């Protein structure tokens, strides 16, 4: 793993700080689109919970002043208190109780609606991420930076967007409280208000700076966290554990895992210590300002300028104002991080997808088959071409075999043919029309391909076949027909649940298959594509026994008589019947011809064929 260079702070930290807030609006829109009633509910509860504390403080003043007045009246009158004389005080007590109950209701409402929204929003964002993944090209998928964005986006998809909205609302709530406290406080002195605001500013700025640092760290280290996730997978997944045990890899991999943690933890610790030390020191300034104003109120009351009730109210306003201010600051610090998460999410969601310009559903020369004309290809980010100068023509009813050593470019040629990548030079035609002009769905309907690294779906056996043709995903008769052609029917019928047997180990009762059995499943999957007239098998029998292999090819030839077939194999016995054999060497066509022609030529093919024939004897 290469160590990326440390993050550099932006030239103007505050420009970055405010710039990133543009995502708050999008987060709110996202929540609005997720559930309007819940968003409205949240807004109402936020407003209520924001205004009522000031109302409670004001009622507190009225209570104390009413008590003082009632006490004076009783002292003068000398009578025992009656309901009539107590009512002016009690009604305020009752009102305050009501206000407190309303605050509790609003807070309950907030938390209930938040948890409902969290579930909905997490789901929505995950679906957005996965839908986008479905539109990305293979080349984009292989781009490690984009993959990082995807991983980061998915990791916190269910929490961050709502967290941002919650904090935005919390900020709104505390802001409303502060403004309403401010309105009350201005009655005492506008200067007191100013002192409090200025006192709180330094801690706010430090919070903003450190949040920015935290996010840069988070982005910069994402290759390391990805390696950590990968190591977790290797150490804890059934498909790798066998090899990890046998090679005794646990200590090695765990050592690497711990090493990454320690580096990351060290960085986290430094940041946390700096952030909290500064937070504490600057927070002291705010507290100092607060207690200065507090002392001022006390002195004014002693001097008789304020009533006891007013003093009670101001003290409450100070206490609650301070709490609201620091909660607001924390919300802003956290919001910044959530915004940065969202910036990552939207960067990912806004990745341009290749426009699918092609619309053709039939070629201009039906029956012309496949043509490669001067095709070359270089993988994105690579320097040397993997394929160059490829010319070939395959007509319906013909078979083509590709042979060549590992890494010579055979699979890549198939990836170009199936339009997983566009060629870097030259063109590929199907029925006389460039693949680029074809509607990609129409094109893919015509191709049935089984790659070497086919997918072993942790689904039922039948569904593992059904994925070959989504229109017949649940069609049991079609499964059976395909399984017969792929030679999978015999062993499937012996499985406990037949076509309904769960495969793989992820789910209860799942059954694991042997390598050859999986290959038969993959082969049958290719036969599910009834519409396909181009069949591509990339080493379809490497894991099969010799008898099965011979039978597979006999059936394949029978089934594909009027189709175009492309076969990649390292076993020369299986390719000899092809109408055309291409020997690929480092991305170029070295030899071409039928088996007999190539033997007569006595070149690379003939030499390798004789070598293999000797080995089989
Ligand atoms: N996704 C990729 N990105 C970059 N390079 C790749 C990618 N896939 C394959 N390559 C490179 O392209 C070359 C050709 O690979 P390809 O899979 O086409 O070979 P192949 O002939 O099918 O080999 P094998 O017989 O081993 O299956 C190899 O050198 C490989 O390293």
UniProtKB/TrEMBL annotation:
Domain ABC transmembrane type-1, residue spans: 40-337
Domain ABC transporter: 370-611
Molecular function as annotated in GO: ABC-type oligopeptide transporter activity; ATP binding; ATP hydrolysis activity
Pfam families tied to this protein: ABC_tran
Transmembrane segments: 38-59, 89-106, 191-210, 278-299
Matching InterPro entries: AAA+_ATPase, ABC1_TM_dom, ABC1_TM_sf, ABC_transporter-like_ATP-bd, ABC_transporter-like_CS, P-loop_NTPase, Type_1_exporter
PANTHER family in UniProt: ATP-BINDING CASSETTE SUB-FAMILY B MEMBER 10, MITOCHONDRIAL, ATP-DEPENDENT PERMEASE MDL1, MITOCHONDRIAL
Name used for this protein in its record: ABC transporter permease
